[in-house]
């Protein structure tokens, strides 16, 4: 671990000089270029996809494997939405916090990024109950790959610090502690979504939102396959396919892997429509959670930039 500085530097504020801000923007922009370069050649091959036993979209055949509506009022997505809602209820009830390794790739501005790998800690939000106060969502990230992002740390606690993230770069770029709007230009560079949407619970909430919307857009094909794996965990794979592209649809094929034992999502991948017939569907985004440990017993120290185990300047 890098030795901690004995004197803490102040966080970046709006009153800092233009020169410092320009230097920061240049630093992050260079990082973004390095992260996004070179991912297009192996679009369906990554550490994340190799962590699953299925690394390309499944064929829609045989038809017997598809979930079909039993009556005119039922949609093929209804069983999927039921699984997702049950998982969300279970997670909110049984999962206070967790840590994992997150692998991520996203298509931004038409280009597929290289793979980002980060260690993640999360405390799930909870509502006030009896004498217990409400707990906001807590997130800590430490990037371990690619080399251009290695050492970067990010902390966000919902509603705290003016709802800003506290971040710093790694290596020789680690000279400044930054307070940033999670949806601002700098924080969003190289990211498809803000940090406010990260984590297992947020992923299931987004799946329910998308599934409810897609239910109204038209028919789709749903395949459910048990016994697939993400890492060493046995999972139930649910694949949703929109055969034809309609307005409002944001994916051609989506895959979600639910841990069969713990009812938590371990992987989500979405693919777009091929530009030409016969081409493989292009990967749009994928998120894989490995080595997930639930209910670790995290404390405020785990989400403090002054934690001596962290490398904040």
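^ structure tokens above, recovered residues below v
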């Amino acid at each position: 671990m890098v030795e901690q500085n004995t004197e803490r530097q102040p966080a970046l504020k709006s009153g800092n000089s233009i020169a410092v801000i320009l230097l920061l923007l240049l630093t992050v922009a260079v990082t973004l270029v390095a992260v996004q370069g070179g991912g297009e050649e192996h679009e369906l091959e990554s550490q994340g996809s190799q962590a699953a036993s299925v690394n390309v979209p499944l064929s829609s055949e045989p038809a017997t494997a598809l979930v079909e509506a039993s009556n005119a009022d039922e949609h093929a997505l209804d069983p999927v939405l039921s699984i997702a809602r049950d998982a969300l209820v279970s997670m909110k009830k049984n999962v206070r916090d967790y840590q994992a390794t997150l692998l991520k790739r996203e298509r931004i501005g038409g280009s597929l990024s290289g793979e980002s790998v980060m260690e993640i800690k999360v405390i799930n939000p909870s509502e006030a109950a009896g004498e217990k106060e409400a707990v906001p969502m807590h997130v800590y990230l430490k990037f371990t790959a690619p080399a251009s992002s290695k050492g970067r740390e990010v902390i966000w606690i919902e509603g705290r610090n003016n709802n800003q993230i506290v971040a710093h770069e790694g290596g020789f770029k680690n000279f400044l502690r930054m307070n940033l709007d999670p949806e601002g230009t700098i924080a969003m560079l190289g990211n498809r979504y803000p940090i406010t949407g990260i984590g297992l619970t947020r992923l299931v909430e987004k799946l329910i939102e998308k599934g409810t919307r897609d239910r109204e857009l038209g028919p789709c094909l749903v395949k459910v396959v048990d016994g697939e794996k993400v890492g060493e965990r046995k999972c139930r794979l649910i694949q949703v396919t929109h055969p034809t592209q309609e307005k409002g649809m944001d994916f051609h094929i989506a895959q979600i892997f639910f841990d069969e034992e713990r009812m938590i999502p371990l992987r989500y991948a979405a693919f777009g429509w091929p530009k030409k017939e016969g081409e493989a569907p292009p990967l749009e985004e994928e998120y894989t959670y490995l080595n997930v440990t639930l209910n670790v017993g995290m404390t405020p120290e785990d989400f403090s930039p002054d934690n001596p185990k962290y490398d904040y300047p």
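Residues 11-302 form a domain with the outer membrane lipoprotein receptor (LolB), chain A fold (CATH 2.50.20.10).
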